[in-house]
Amino acid sequence: MAANLVIVESPAKAKTIEKFLGKDYQVKSSFGHIRDLPKKGLNIDIAKDFEPHYEVSADKRKTVSELKTAAKGKEVWLASDEDREGEAIAWHLTQALKLDPAKTKRIVFHEITKPAIDNAVKNPRTVDLNLVDAQQARRVLDRLVGFELSPILWRKVRPSLSAGRVQSVAVRLIVEREREIQAFKSTSSFKVSALFNVGKSILKAELNERFNTEQEAQTFLENCLPTGEAGKKAIYKITSLETKPAKRTPAAPFTTSTLQQEAARKLGFSVAQTMMVAQRLYEAGKITYMRTDSVNLSDTAMGQAKEAITGNYGDKYYQPRKYKTKSKGAQEAHEAIRPTYIQNSEITGERNEQRLYELIWKRTI
């Protein structure tokens, strides 16, 4: 019988991880969040420092009961995702299963591979309450803003409208921008372009200034016409020619936002579709964690990339680059979104998974 119980968020991830850990570990899923604020009422004690009152969701009571039974007499490892939501799920599990937070091991990993899982098991920690508080603050704000403002919208504007911590601010930004657009006074300007015969080819050129009125543009054109003999062709000269070397560098590896943008542009995916497909790829152990703001690649990934490039294209195409995240507060310890096994340029599976994987592989390489 297994002496350890590992709890993850999704059943798909549980199957993959159980294969890596072996018979001493039982891996079960919490199926996401197990506790939340009840749907009816505010359930936040404002007088007690905005203390939230949670309850086990009705559809998760059976799951919690099964996890309690499975945890008896075993060492429990909480292996939910390493973001705020994942940390909150781990904390809620300690509360619902009545586990001692000081003795319960918390493990995180950026990719579902055997080396990553083994390394996480060797380096456990406890639940990070700072991350938990960050998630709770967001959840409490969601409830305070939405619960208080939405009913006002229903009464004053229209039923079924909703207000939120993020969407209300975003709507205001859009409205302010739209008002600027409506208040903008447009003005016309005129540009002049010409086609010149240069030997047997045509050279297109554009004047580097614009005219405020059509008459000014017309006057300029008339001044450019040849004088003297009717029909005589005007002759123009190129007085200087400057050539500059151009350099294009590859785009940085994918973060969550750049993956969403590129998948929309090249594959026609919505944001929700991109994240759903990426989640499946991650849980199957094919890509690293898909919620990240870092463009950093690990030394292991760089080594895999070198082998893939030199093996497929030759040594001269291997030009290693180390990207650094410019955004303040980015987590450089995390990695960009990349294939877990870079030597695999394609995968089997559902067509959209193959397409998104190919996009990630090409960007990484």
Q: Output the radius of gyration.
A: 30 Å
As laid out across the biggest beta sheet, the strand order is: 2-1-7-8
Helicity level = 40-55%
Strand content: 5-15%
Tally of individual helices? 11
Q: Stretches where pLDDT falls below 50 for ≥5 residues?
A: none
Q: Tell me the span between the first and last alpha carbons.
A: 44 Å
Mean pLDDT: 89
How would you sum up this structure, described in words?
Strands 2-1-7-8 form a four-stranded parallel β-sheet, sandwiched between helices. The chain has a two-stranded antiparallel sheet with strand order 3-6. With 365 residues, it is of the alpha/beta class. It is 42% helix and 10% strand. Helix 8 crosses helix 11. The longest helix is centred in the middle third of the chain and has 28 residues, at 129-156.
Short description:
Helices cover 42% and strands 10% of the residues. The chain is built from eleven helices and ten strands.
